[in-house]
Automatic annotation (TrEMBL):
Keywords: Membrane, Transmembrane, Transmembrane helix. The keyword Membrane applies. The lineage of its organism: Bacteria, Bacillati, Actinomycetota, Actinomycetes, Propionibacteriales. It comes from Kribbella speibonae. The chain crosses the membrane at residues 23-41, 47-70. It comes from the Bacteria. This is DUF445 domain-containing protein.
Length: 415
């Protein structure tokens, strides 16, 4: 046997192989001894002698067959022997083809993934014990180690070199229009409008003099100042009253007008070429501004700092929410049959894609590995795994040979 680096399991296999070799050899020796002892003896010993002779023939024939797989019997250059060392490459290719056609096919692997109930098992695992906490902890450790390595220069280069140019080229007007349309349909802008009206009313109430500075210079020159002050006071009161009415009345015509304005804007952003062109031009000016890249980097830096602080704190709200989200996902995977079916189908499609795209490279590990082996090493490795079972061929050959020899001798005597 070629010199191999053997692990614990291989050492056990080698002991088993040697034991079975010893048993097979012992049977051959026993048959030879019986043959010699019963040679030329008469009576019933003739039957024993014939059985022993046939047992030796069967044992030697099967010894030759088993040995010829891995080496040349007695070192003789007999044709079609040492099959594994001399034909290991073609055997590896045949094994690779067998595995590809029968095991690593897209249909077989995809169907196995669909029936393995991976989603249900994953859900049970996530919902049980502290598995969700462990996942979040490991993920936090990984993210916490990776985030500091993203320097500001790298982020700025990515934002300025890849992200912003991509957004400049990508039409965003339909997306913005659809967003505004959704906001208006859901009434999500009303809270912002309420805030703006409150702030506008309070600001105007505190800035009467600023209103006078704006309106006063536009009064006629012949108008007395006391008349101007009365007009400004009246405008100030009416503006405050109007803002208060709009603020407090949810069905005020001004509010409905704003809704119609936003609805029209949403429609124009999606369908009006002029509005879409103006929006895209404004977007391009904003995104190509020299300070945009550094501003986004500053935002990222602040977010990164806050994120690192949150994930490094075992008691942070972020980590607690992540744990709850994983546990809820695990429970849903157990209870929601449609979700399980969808996840299993997606998993099957993903595995099928991997097999379809990279299956040949995966299974080529078999032939590539065996081709790198020395011929004798390949024979030694294979014999180590299957040799013990092959020794039963020798044992069976000895026993069957004896029975066949006894049968033939008996029939000869009867004839």
């Amino acid at each position: 046997m070629a010199t191999l680096t053997l692990g614990a399991a291989d050492l056990v296999r080698r002991r088993g192989l040697r034991q079975m070799r010893s048993v097979a050899l012992a049977l051959l020796v026993l048959a030879a001894v019986i043959y010699v002892v019963t040679l030329h003896r008469t009576g019933g010993w003739g039957y024993v002698n014939a059985a022993a002779e046939a047992a030796m023939v069967g044992a030697l024939a099967d010894w030759f067959a088993v040995t010829a797989l891995f080496r040349r019997p007695l070192g003789l250059p007999i044709p079609h022997t040492a099959i594994v060392p001399t034909r290991k490459d073609s055997l590896a290719e045949s094994l690779e083809q067998f595995v590809t056609e029968n095991f690593l096919s897209e249909e077989v692997v995809s169907e196995k993934m669909r029936t393995a109930e991976v989603s249900r098992r994953a859900g049970e695992w996530l919902a049980a014990g502290n598995h969700a906490e462990r996942i979040v902890a490991e993920g936090a450790r990984t993210v916490g180690a990776a985030l500091p390595k993203l320097g500001d220069d790298d982020v700025t280069a990515f934002v300025s070199g890849s992200l912003l140019p991509r957004f400049v080229k990508e039409p965003l007007s339909p997306i913005a229009g659809h967003f505004v349309e959704s906001v208006v349909d859901d009434g999500a802008h009303h809270a912002l409008l309420d805030l703006l009206l409150v702030e506008a009313h309070d600001w105007l109430a505190d800035n009467r003099d600023l209103l006078a500075d704006v309106v006063g210079p536009r009064a006629p020159r012949w108008s007395p100042q006391w008349v101007d002050r009365m007009v400004i006071d009246r405008i100030h009161r009416e503006a405050l009253t109007w803002l208060a009415d709009v603020r407090d009345n949810q069905t005020h015509p001004a509010r409905r007008a704003i809704d119609r304005l936003l609805g029209q804007l949403a429609h124009d952003l999606q369908h009006d070429p002029d509005t879409m062109a103006r929006f895209e031009a404004w977007k391009a000016r904003m995104l190509t501004h020299p300070d945009m890249g550094s501003s986004l980097t500053a935002v990222w830096d602040a977010m990164r700092t806050a994120l690192i602080d949150s994930i490094n704190d075992p008691n942070s709200t972020l980590r607690a929410r992540a744990v709850r989200a994983l546990q809820e996902l695990g429970q849903r995977l157990q209870d929601d049959e449609s979700l399980r079916a969808k996840v299993d189908n997606r998993a099957a499609e993903a595995v099928g894609y991997v097999v379809r795209t990279y299956g040949q490279e995966i299974v080529s590990v078999i032939s590539d590995t065996i081709e790198r082996w020395d011929g004798r090493e390949a024979a030694a490795r294979i014999e180590l795994h299957v040799g013990r079972d092959l020794q039963f061929i020798r044992i069976n050959g000895t026993v069957v040979g004896a029975l066949v020899g006894l049968t033939i001798h008996t029939v000869s005597q009867l004839l």
